[in-house]
Prior knowledge:
alpha/beta, 341 residues, binds adenine, TIM Barrel, binds zinc ion, 50% helix, 8 strands, 8-stranded parallel sheet
Amino acid sequence: MxxxxxxxxxxxxxxxELHVHLEGTVDAATLLALAERHGIExxxxxxxxxxxxxRFDGFPAFLERYLTVTSMLRDPxxxxxxxxxxxxxxxxxxxxxxxxxxxxxxxxxxxxKPWPPIYDAIVAGCRRAEAVTRISWGLxxxxxxxxxxxxxERAMTKVLDHDLTGVVAVGMxxxxxxWFTDDFTPIFRRAKSEGLHSVSHAAEHGGxxxxxFAVEQFGAERIQHGIGVLADPAAVQLLVERGIACDVCPxxxxxxxxxxxxxxxxxxxxxxxxxxxxxxxxxxxxxxxxLLDEYERAWNWCALTKEGMRQxxxxxxxxxxxxxxxxxxxxxxxxxxDSDR
Length: 341
Ligand code: ADE
Ligand code: ZN
C-alpha cells in the first residue's frame, strides 16, 4: 500500500494539461447561467440536477449531452468566459500550460456559427487569464467524425483560413466509427502545410488499429486516450519508438465505462510498456474530476512514488507544443520541487 496522495506536492509541480475539451469545462452553474442568458430550457433546474445529467451509461449518451452543452454556447463572450474560467482554475492546480481541444466542427456545422468571433473570443478569454497568472495556452480545433468528412473539411478550411496565432494543432475527437470509411486525411495535410501539429483521439473505446491509423493517416504526434493500444505489441512499439505520448484521462475512462473498474485500467501496463503518458481531465465537471484528481488516480492505481508523479508532470511538459525555451524553464522548476513537501 503506498502512502496517501501528496496533493500539495503534486500541485506544486509545474504541469501541462494536454487533453481537455473547452466545451467540456462547462460546469453546472455555468450551464444554468447560459440557459438563463439565452432563454434556453436547461436540462435540469438546479446544479444537483445538472450534475445528475452529467452521468452517462456510455459514450453515445455522453456525446449527445456534450453536443447539447456545445449548442448552448451562443455568444462570443460565452467562449471567452469559459476559457478564462478554466485557465484560472487550472492555475490553482499548478498547471502552467493548457492545450484546449475545441469542437470547431460542431460550432460551424451543427450550430451554423462563424469561426472568427469564436476564435477571437477564446483567445481574448485565454489572454485575460494569462495576464493575471502568466499561464501559457494553445488551441486544438478538432474534427467531429460523427459528421461527414466533406463537411468537416469545409469547417476546418474556415478555421485554417483565419488567424492561427493561438492554434498549435488540429485534432480528431468524437467517435472513431467513420474513420475507416471516410477520408479525413486532407484536413491534416492542410494543417501540416500551415505548420501545425496533429493529434487524435484513438483507442478510447476501440482497439490498437485506431492508434496505427491515427499515426499513419493523420500524422498524429500525440494520442488522446490510447488505452486500447496494448492489445497489439506492434502498435505499442510504434508509440514508444516515435515517442508519441498518450494523453490518458482515467476518470473519463471510468465515467464513460471504457473500463469496468480501476483495476481493469491499463495505465500501469502502459507505463510499464514505456509509453510516454500524460494525464488529462477530458471534460472535468462532466466526469466529476479535475487534473489533481487524475494524478491521485494514477498514484493509487499504479502505486507511484513522488518521483513517479514528477515523471508524469515532466512527460506533460515535454509532450506539449509549448515553445522549447518555456518547456526548459518549467523543467528546471520541476526538478527543483522539494519532494519533502
Ligand atoms: N470529445 C469530448 N470528450 C471526448 C472523449 N472522451 N472522446 C472523444 N471525443 C470527445
Ligand atoms: Zn477527449
